[in-house]
């Protein structure tokens, strides 16, 4: 086999090992080599059993996603699976690492499956806007029952080996070498003359469902709470339902049809785009791949407020001891109590044990002076968003910390270069912009200063991976990438209020588009006073928001903002007082209010953001359109199945967006709506952002 699959004999047992780094994806040449190897082993009279395993760091992690946009090439994975299922000799899959998607499906064609402890097995296709396309929806329910199968397929989350054993997905957990363990298990099967039952012939776990169809509906309802707007979950449900009462081979056809339809659809293309964009974002143009990151054994966080506490939790959650520095004992205690409360809440939800809470809290060292943090390898400053405060802190850090300590600021819009030049070590300074709540939101904007050294950047990327964040490197610009585009959307949202929309119209349009929350409900949640303070510092004005703040309406924290909130409830309720305030403001400003339909509202909010994204690319503040998409998916809840603002722009078509921007510029008189040169050029060439060469 051409280096992709190895076939060897251990006495009368054949061992077939996939060898296709980095994750043993089932590319066309792997499938071809597998078909050849299984045919040989099947036809070899001296071979009494077959073991399927792999080389490298994981068993097969799925079909090769890079092949999905190309014409399918035979043998398909289903062909290989059918071949394996036709073999009368015992076939044992011996897995390890992350057997996922097609990698798990191919094992379902084997008679037995054994897994190394620590293996995580799953069918994550739903996360790519797909469903299992090689029999997973039909074989998995037969092995583990519909409840477990539906949960795995509709969540896409893998399960650990011990759960797989309990559910009947695997037959044994082993320690040590997968091939040797597979051979030993095969020999045991031969010696015990175990019956060779194929998953496809198992009906025992489906019988009860046939007798009581209501159960299936209940299972589905539990597993589709967060699938608003998504095509794949609905398709998965239909083919899972077919597993109950449609003949196996006919149900396989239904699965295949649904898979092919989804693979060609916009939603899966968007989700596959994000899968690769997230990984591309971690590859920094000009940063040599072998740049050695500095070792990070200890961290420190300045500030134990909402952001500082959340950031400190990120380090502790990754097992990195963290010193958290506050200015006084009360603030420090409040911060540490909040952290402990978060962990206790997680324990109450079963996310961790009570003992874990104690262990986790032992990683925090709370102090009220910087000196106690001096042995930290990295410090993240999360103090008040005011340059004077940053100056004082960074002067102190520069004095106290070791010469190679990395100093990061969590500022969300201040000039990182200015902060770096406060110190004598600008090469070791950069921005690490977390998103609130910092211990939950996965996005981390890493702000590369003009002087940031390559190894410091590489260290920040390594830290991001260690604390399970999705890093995107951005340049220095007001609001970097995410907040810079968010500001454009906020300005436009205010305009729409003055022109004729109400908060619930704007929020309704964006939630229908797929955001979890609209801009006004989000402002009420975050607190209107935060951006009010920023606008005042910049001499900017937002007519409606400023009046609300002047009236002390800061949002949920004051029980009213753009909306009203019943005490104890976070549900936004339209407030007639706000509606009158908006109408009066339109009148005072001489704006004649007119109705705005949802399509217009969405285009007025999203297209200017896309235009700003084009400027960000022109200025080099983001390296790739995909970086901007990753930021908006992981930092702001842009609907994953639309692929982010720049991918969405390509789906809509840049010439249409360019024309609409020109209309907006006329309507609002805002020159910023004139199409950015990059957008204009791409549109006139009939191209999309996706055509920009990988940076
Ligand atoms: N196909 C192609 N390339 C893949 C790949 C895949 N399935 N999985 C990973 N890569 C690349 C990835 O782009 C990166 O490339 C490198 O491998 C290392 O990945 C028929 C249709 C396995 C948990 O969805 O979840 O099977 O950047 O950085 O952090 O029903 O990769 O180095 O050039 O993520 O150690 C189902 C997707 C496919 C699994 C490892 N399978 N992969 O994580 O490494 S659809 C999946 C992952 C399917 C069947 C259906 C993770 C991982 P580069 P990495 P990692």
Features:
18 strands, Rossmann fold, 6-stranded mixed sheet, binds (2S,3S)-3-hydroxy-2-methylbutanoyl-COA, 3 domains, N-(1-d-carboxylethyl)-l-norvaline Dehydrogenase, domain 2, 2-enoyl-CoA Hydratase, Chain A, domain 1, alpha/beta
Q: How would you describe what is shown here?
A:
It is a single chain. The mean pLDDT is 95. Helix 4 (136-144) packs across helix 10 and helix 28 (654-668) packs across helix 29. The protein is globular. The chain folds into three domains: 5-264, 2-enoyl-CoA Hydratase, Chain A, domain 1; 299-474, 3-Layer(aba) Sandwich (Rossmann fold), CATH 3.40.50.720; 501-588, N-(1-d-carboxylethyl)-l-norvaline Dehydrogenase, domain 2 (Orthogonal Bundle), CATH 1.10.1040. It contains 29 helices and 18 strands. It is of the alpha/beta class. 49% of the residues lie in helices and 11% in strands. The protein has an eight-stranded mixed sheet with strand order 11-10-9-12-13-14-15-16, sandwiched between helices. The protein has a six-stranded mixed sheet with strand order 1-2-3-4-5-8, with helices on both faces. Strands 6-7 form a two-stranded antiparallel sheet. The site of (2S,3S)-3-hydroxy-2-methylbutanoyl-COA (T1G) has 25 residues, from helix 3 and helix 12.
């Amino acid at each position: 086999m051409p280096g992709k699959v190895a076939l060897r004999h251990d006495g009368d047992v054949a061992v077939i090992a996939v060898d296709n780094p980095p994750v043993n994806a089932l590319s066309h040449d792997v499938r071809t080599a597998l078909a050849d190897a299984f045919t040989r082993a099947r036809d070899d009279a001296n071979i009494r059993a077959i073991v399927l395993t792999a080389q490298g760091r994981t068993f097969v992690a799925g079909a090769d996603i890079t092949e999905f946009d190309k014409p399918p090439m035979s043998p398909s994975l289903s062909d290989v699976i059918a071949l394996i299922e036709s073999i009368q000799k015992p076939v044992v899959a011996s897995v390890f690492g992350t057997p996922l998607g097609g990698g798990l499906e191919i094992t379902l064609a084997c008679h037995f499956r054994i897994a190394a402890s620590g293996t995580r097995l799953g069918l994550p296709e739903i996360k790519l806007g797909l469903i299992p396309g090689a029999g997973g929806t039909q074989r998995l329910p037969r092995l583990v029952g519909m409840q477990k199968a539906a949960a795995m397929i509709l969540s896409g989350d893998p399960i650990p080996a011990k759960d797989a054993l309990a559910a009947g997905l695997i037959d044994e957990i082993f320690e040590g070498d997968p091939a040797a363990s597979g051979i030993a298990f095969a020999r045991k099967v031969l010696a015990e003359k175990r019956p060779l039952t194929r998953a496809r012939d198992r009906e025992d776990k489906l019988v009860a469902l046939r007798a009581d169809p209501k159960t299936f509906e209940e299972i589905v309802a539990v597993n589709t709470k967060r699938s608003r707007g998504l095509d794949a979950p609905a398709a998965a449900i239909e083919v899972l339902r077919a597993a109950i009462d449609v003949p196996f081979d006919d149900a396989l056809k239904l699965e295949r049809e649904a898979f092919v339809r989804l693979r060609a659809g916009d939603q899966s293309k968007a989700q596959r785009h994000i899968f690769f964009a997230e990984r591309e974002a971690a590859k920094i143009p000009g940063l040599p791949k072998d740049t050695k990151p500095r070792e990070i054994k200890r961290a420190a966080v300045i500030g134990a407020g909402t952001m500082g506490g959340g950031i400190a939790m990120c380090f502790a959650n990754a097992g990195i001891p963290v010193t958290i520095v506050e200015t006084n004992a009360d603030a420090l205690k409040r911060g540490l109590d909040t952290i402990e409360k978060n962990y206790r809440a997680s324990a109450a939800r079963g996310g961790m044990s009570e003992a874990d809470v104690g262990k986790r809290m032992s990683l925090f060292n709370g102090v009220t002076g910087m000196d106690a943090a001096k042995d930290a390898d990295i410090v993240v400053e999360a103090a008040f968003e005011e340059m004077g405060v940053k100056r004082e802190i960074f002067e102190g850090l520069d004095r106290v910390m070791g010469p190679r300590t990395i100093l990061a600021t969590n500022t969300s819009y201040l000039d990182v270069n200015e902060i770096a030049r406060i110190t004598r070590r600008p090469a070791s300074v950069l921005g690490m912009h977390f998103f609130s709540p910092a211990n939950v939101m996965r996005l981390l904007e890493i702000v590369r200063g003009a002087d940031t050294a390559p190894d410091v950047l590489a260290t920040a990327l390594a830290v991001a991976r260690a604390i399970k964040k999705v890093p995107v490197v951005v340049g220095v610009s007001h609001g970097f990438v995410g907040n810079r585009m968010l500001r454009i959307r906020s300005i436009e949202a205010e305009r729409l209020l003055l022109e004729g929309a109400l908060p619930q119209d704007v929020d309704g349009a964006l939630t229908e588009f797929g955001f979890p929350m609209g801009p006004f409900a989000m402002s009420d949640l975050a607190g209107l006073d935060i951006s009010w303070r920023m606008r005042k510092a910049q001499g900017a004005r937002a007519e409606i928001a400023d009046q609300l703040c002047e009236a002390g309406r800061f949002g949920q924290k004051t029980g009213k903002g753009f909306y009203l909130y019943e005490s104890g409830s976070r549900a936004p309720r339209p407030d007639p007082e706000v509606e009158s305030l908006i109408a009066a403001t339109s009148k005072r400003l001489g704006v004649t209010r007119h109705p705005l339909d949802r399509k217009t509202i969405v285009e007025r909010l999203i297209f200017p953001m896309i235009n700003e994204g084009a400027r960000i690319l022109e200025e080099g503040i983001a390296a790739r359109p995909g970086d901007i998409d990753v930021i908006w998916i992981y930092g702001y809840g842009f609907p994953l199945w639309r692929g982010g603002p720049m991918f969405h722009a390509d789906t809509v078509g840049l010439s249409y967006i360019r024309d609409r921007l020109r209309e907006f510029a006329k309507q609002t008189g805002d020159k910023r709506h004139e199409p950015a040169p990059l957008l204009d050029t791409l549109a006139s060439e009939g191209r999309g952002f996706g055509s920009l060469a990988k940076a």
